[in-house]
Amino acid sequence: MIALVALATALTMTAAAPAPAELVLLSAKIWTGDPARPEAEALAVRGGRIVAVGRDEEIARLKGEKTVVLDGKWRRAVPGLIDSHTHMSMGGFNLLAVDLRRTKDEADFTRALAAFARTQPPGRWLTDGAWDQEQWPVPRLPTRALLDPATGDRPTCLARQDGHMMVCNTLALKLAGVTLETADPPGGVIVKDEKSEPTGVLKDAAMELVGRVRPARTRQELLGALRAAMKEAARFGVTSVQDLPGDPGDVAAWDELRRGGELTVRVDYRPSLSSWEKAKQLQTSMPNDEWLRVGGVKGYADGSLGSGTALMFEPFSDDPGNRGVYAAEAIPLSAMEERVAAADAAGLQVEIHAIGDRANHEILDLYERVERKNGPRDRRFRIEHAQHLRADDVPRFAALGVVASMQPYHAVDDGRWAEKRLGRERSKTTYAFRSLLDARATLAFGSDWDVAPISPILGIAAAVTRRTIDGKNPGGWVPEQKIAPEEALRAYTVSAAYAGFEEKERGSLEIGKLADFVLLSGDVLATRPEELERIQVDTTVVGGRIVYRR
Prior knowledge:
This protein is of the alpha/beta class. 54% of the residues are buried.
């Protein structure tokens, strides 16, 4: 009888004992993002999710013979970093192409392009390799005269780093039928010289003149670009992306990688607002799981500051005849409003690119009208970039529940030259991180990669210091808009998850959530601000699987 009782007790204890963890992280300084338990030492993972968070001695009990043990060595661990605004296929293609952003001047631009062109087959279109004329001592727009000697019989159209204008060689313009008689399309500009000849530069909607004749990417090319992009994301601790329209084949390629078990980053894809019906169909026809989902749609209200197409109330300080342009899909604005209302009524989250102060103002107005029309619900409208705001519009983000989806690295990049376009007064509410947070708006951070580096650490450093990349603003450009390291980290985790309706699954390290986390070489919450950018990602874990080690 005693033996039977002992056996029953042993069986009960065995049944009650938790299964060993598949992975444990021990001896770390964990910032959980959970207000109820902001700091911890260790966590355990089973089935791709967090099953315990606590002290070392608690979590160590969950080790088994096959448990992977990560020694944190008391380094800072943070939730998997979420990039709220990426263009992954574009980033991947540019990784595989020539990087013209590093060229020193026009002659160096031509030399670098020529060296790359010689590695490509004759007749192949060259369409990758971002450039930025603001890096040159004399920041003039490149022209086809710089491309023609370097590219030979290869049609070439290369985008500026912001993606809002490109420069084409003579052959590409000829194939696209762009001549001195070609008029500017709605929402676009064909830059011409004093003889009305196209210089090769096409802005915003004018780029579609070339897009119509350029060959489509092959599936294998697209898969190669996305694989390269995933490696780059893992290297910088990015475990989730809200990926925006790039190539028409993006969703199918992501799905192929998912079905093959290749994904190392979670993808929330957001097709174009103009194709919202297709996006809704994908939401219902395609498996939307923890790895790949269609989360909403993205539209455009205007262009960019670098291209001189951001829509402003007042003219640019350095171009008195120019107030920017509406994006083609915002002409007329009432047509865009109809699409937003229809997409919203279908339950899709809507986000709209707005750079200039007028573009932001008008999109806030548009969102307010759509909300009145469709009635109250948790819709989380977003403005992508929200770069240049009038002071009166800052509190409207919180009042309307509009997420400010911003990219802090742009502030330290554009800050080198933005003031010459905007003047000092308008610059005070440019990249207004502090003002938006003080107004209780939701601030979600991303990179806009490949326009800017995908690294969230560089983004955090930019938001905290606002030190421009030319070293000329050591105290910060518009320093009153700086924010604290923890506020910036939250914008890449908790708030970024909220911005994508993903806060129940990711963004913080809590029991039941996806086991995505990052080990850093330094403490992002305690490092001196000017040294933040030196912190590196040591380990990236997605779903309890190590996808990167430095």
